[in-house]
Specification:
Layout: E1 13-16, H1 40-48, H2 60-64, H3 68-71, H4 73-116, H5 134-143, E2 166-168, E3 171-173, H6 175-179, H7 185-198, H8 206-219, H9 221-227, H10 230-238, E4 241-242, E5 247-248, H11 253-264, E6 271-276, H12 278-281, E7 288-293, E8 301-304, E9 309-312, H13 314-330, H14 335-353, H15 359-364, E10 370-373, H16 374-380, H17 386-393, E11 404-407, H18 410-424, H19 434-447, H20 453-465, H21 475-498, H22 501-521, H23 527-539, E12 541-545, H24 553-559, H25 570-587, E13 604-606, E14 609-613, H26 628-654, H27 657-672, H28 686-712, E15 716-719, H29 724-735, H30 752-759
Parallel strand pairs: 7-11, 12-14
Antiparallel strand pairs: 1-15, 2-3, 4-5, 6-7, 8-9, 10-11, 13-14
Biased composition (Pro residues): 26-38
Domain Peptidase M13 C-terminal: 609-741
Domain Peptidase M13 N-terminal: 188-542
Length: 782
């Protein structure tokens, strides 16, 4: 981390080796870069001093004998050109170095701001560790904030606060960082992507520019509100109108259905997606199939376990009816016609809902992943032109009736076909087009995110009427998520350009090696159990899912060449996004690799690989110019914790250590807090024991991995003169409140693990004030 004290005089930055004490000798002189080879001003003076000669009449002899400077004209011109070129290179070097110094200084300020968001756990009493996220609790005492505030989108957070720094007059403001202790990795990544989209940095890539323009059009609420319902009404006319408005040209049912699925990613009667057959995956086959599932019906239904049927609840139907009426009213439907069409829509929806069933029921009945050919499906559910609809939806792929598809609720598909056929043949309703209106209603809900606030407010009121809460999502977050739906490949490309690939790959390798070493130290049930787990771990190939796997700028420009983004028409942009989304779904049928999830923040296994998304290696948790101790204390710990979570089932059932260490740490906690209130203290559940062990082991792995990196390169930087391990543990204490699916199982503040580690090892430079007594019944460390 090449940071200079002259750039940041307020920071105390030290270069430490592994063996130096916490407050050792002064840092060595910082290396100064040489000045540019040639000063452009000097170059200009040299050019101006060149003699200016006036031509005079020359004799023939004089003409033949040229002056000395003319004899070496080419050499002089060459030297002059070389000097100019050196000056240009020097100027470029100076500018690049200046930017590098600015980036390093910004990272240094960022690191300082990260440290200032929490108190030093080494200076806190045991009360600091009494409840989860103790440092956040201390901040709440000082600021009167409730737990949960500071988390983006949290219901208690009435005023939107920024998690990451915002640019103000070219500088970075860190005040809001100090207010937001509890950083969710997903929220931080979304904010990081937001900054990329909102940056004014020019790009020669047209795909990048279109992505940013799409995002900005989503933020332009004024244009969206001004447009009102007119863009949607125009789209209805493009689809042949509808009977609700009195103008419908009676379009073909199957043709309209195919267009809705292909161009607008709308699936009224059944869902379509692409995936593998788990039965084949187990045998090593990874072919993808079209998957046909029951749809996400708009009508509220509930599952009756006694009759094993879905049914509508009268109490929920009333607000649903009111919302449907409101939608038609907003679309300018004649008041006298609204109830006729709403009644038909609810009746048709109710008939379809009867055959729908929850996933757990279908799993118990063996109704998931039922394979059949399109020809066989046509025979079982003839009302749908399956080959025609699927060919339209997955254009330009070529399909045949002998191709296989996977069904996830065949009884529903059969019943849906009968229902559609019955409504198609109800001649008394031929002029009202109930099936067409049903499809338009579904299209409306698909496009509602791109429409004015009257529609979203109607949907919100309906949700509240059902007794459900509604999370207020900030506009920027909504727009980032919508942008990712269609432009995920561009965002992956942009994120890859900002990721420090070499540093991330080095950390992954060191953590994985240290984790395997930790597993070898565990006490196993028997030798076979140990070999079984280690064989699985050793078979995994950990690597960063880098930008090398995604399309380059030129390829992206070609792919998005037919996309036209209008900065003041989010609705038309959104239509193109839906088309892109379905196009991506089509490509999955033939793509050789899985589509990367740009917003992923946890590793996952794919075949024999353990893949780490680039979203794990972003500020404020990780930066290549941070001290390595900070990176290992935060992201190194998270990597180890995530890997352990993937392996917990195998480790728990084959090793005694999980239960033993979990109880050991918990007993330390009870012993350290014996003078505090003992309310709620009891034996831990299996899930709690597992999580205590996971986080304790992950912290040990992060420390070991960091020392492994020091053995490869003994130099590291620090902040405020803190010792390496002190800085690592301080950084760890800042991410232990990270929101993940397992956080509810952690019965104690993870910061307490610092006290446990420090009491049983010599890794800590000092002992925390929360000193814990040795266990009477334990002669070894947890």
């Amino acid at each position: 981390m090449s940071l200079t004290s002259e750039l940041e005089p307020q920071l105390s930055l030290h270069f430490l080796s592994q063996s130096e004490p916490e407050r050792g000798k002064a840092p060595p002189p910082l290396k100064q870069h040489p000045p540019p080879t040639t000063d452009p001003h000097q170059l200009q003076e040299q050019i101006q001093l060149q003699p200016v000669l006036q031509p005079e009449p020359l004799s023939r002899h004089e003409h033949q004998e040229k002056p000395a400077w003319m004899k070496h004209q080419r050499a002089l011109l060459f030297m002059l050109g070389l000097t100019v070129w050196a000056a240009i290179l020097g100027l470029i070097y100076y500018i690049h170095h200046n930017f590098h110094r600015q980036d390093a200084a910004a990272a240094c300020r960022w690191a300082e701001a990260r440290l200032s968001t929490s108190t030093d756990p080494f200076t806190q009493p045991c009360g600091y560790f009494m409840s989860p996220c103790g440092s956040s609790r201390l901040l709440q005492k000082n600021r009167g904030r409730q737990r949960g505030q500071g988390i983006r989108g949290h219901p208690q957070n009435q005023m939107e606060k920024s998690v990451l720094p915002e640019r103000q007059n070219g500088e970075t403001s860190y005040a809001k960082l100090r207010e937001d202790k509890m950083l969710s990795r997903k929220n931080v990544l979304l904010q990081y992507v937001r900054e990329i989209l909102e940056s004014n940095q020019n790009s020669r890539s047209s795909a990048v520019q279109k992505t940013k323009d799409f995002y900005r059009s989503c933020l332009d609420r004024r244009s969206i509100e001004t447009a009102g319902a007119e863009p949607f009404l125009q789209l209805i006319q493009k689809l042949g109108g509808w009977a609700v408005s009195g103008r419908w040209n009676k379009t073909d049912f199957n043709s309209t259905l195919g267009v809705l699925m292909r161009d607008y990613s709308t699936f009224p009667f059944f869902n379509l997606y692409v995936g593998k057959d788990p039965n084949e995956t187990a045998s090593g086959t990874h072919q993808r199939y079209i998957q046909i599932d029951q749809p996400d019906l708009l009508i509220p239904i509930e599952w009756n376990r006694k009759t094993e049927k879905s049914q509508a609840n009268a109490k929920t139907l009333r607000p649903f009816l009111a919302s449907c009426q409101k939608f038609l009213n907003l679309l300018g439907s004649p008041p006298g016609e609204i109830m006729i069409h709403v009644g038909s829509f609810i009746s048709l929806s109710s008939e379809l809902a009867v055959a729908a069933s929850p996933r757990h029921y279908r799993l118990s009945k063996g109704q998931l992943h039922q394979r059949m050919t399109i020809k066989e499906l046509q025979r079982r559910a003839p009302a749908i032109d399956w080959l025609g609809c699927l060919q339209t939806a997955f254009h330009p792929l070529s399909l045949s009736e002998d191709d296989h598809v996977l069904l996830h609720n065949l009884p529903y598909i059969v019943q849906m076909s009968r229902t559609v056929n019955k409504w198609l043949n109800r001649h008394e309703l031929s002029n009202s087009g109930p099936l067409h209106t049903f499809m338009i209603f579904n299209l409306l809900h698909t496009l509602m995110p791109a429409m004015d606030s009257r529609f979203s407010e109607t949907a919100k009121n309906y949700t509240l009427a059902l007794g459900h809460s509604v999370e207020e999502v900030p506009l920027w977050r909504h727009c980032v998520l919508e942008t990712e739906r269609g432009f995920d490949s561009v965002l992956t490309h942009l994120l890859g350009q900002k990721t420090a690939l070499r540093e991330a790959e080095e950390m992954i390798e060191n953590v994985f090696d240290s984790l395997k070493s930790k597993l070898n130290e565990l006490k196993w049930v028997d030798r076979n159990s140990s070999e079984l787990v280690m064989q699985k771990v050793n078979s995994l190939i950990p690597r960063l899912r880098s930008s090398e796997e995604v399309s380059g700028g030129d390829d992206l420009d070609i792919f998005f060449s037919k996309v036209t983004i209008r900065t003041n028409s989010f609705f038309s942009n959104y239509l193109q996004l839906l088309s892109l989304w379905q196009n991506r779904r089509s490509k999955l049928l033939t793509a050789p690799i899985e589509a990367a999830d740009v917003l992923s923040v946890t590793p996952f296994s794919l075949d024999a690989e353990l893949l780490f998304p680039m979203g794990m290696f972003i500020p404020p948790f990780f930066h290549p110019t941070y001290p390595k101790a900070m990176n290992y204390g935060a992201v190194g710990f998270l990597i180890a914790k995530d890997i352990f979570h993937l392996l917990v089932p195998e480790i728990y059932y084959h090793s005694r250590s999980v239960h033993t260490v979990g109880k050991c740490v918990w007993s330390y906690y009870i012993n350290a807090t014996e003078r505090a209130s003992r309310d709620g203290v009891s034996a831990l559940s299996t899930a709690q024991l597992q999580e205590v062990w996971v986080q304790h082991a992950a912290l040990q792995v992060a420390l070991q991995a960091y020392h492994l990196s020091l053995s490869q390169n003994s130099s590291d930087t620090s902040l405020a003169g803190m010792h390496h391990d002190h800085l690592l543990l301080r950084s760890f204490s800042q991410v232990n409140c990270d929101a993940d699916p397992f956080s509810e199982s952690m019965p104690l503040d993870p910061s307490f693990l610092i006290a446990v580690v420090c009491s049983t090892s010599d890794l800590c430079p000092t002992s925390p004030q929360c000193s814990i007594k040795s266990q009477q019944n334990s002669s070894h460390a947890c």
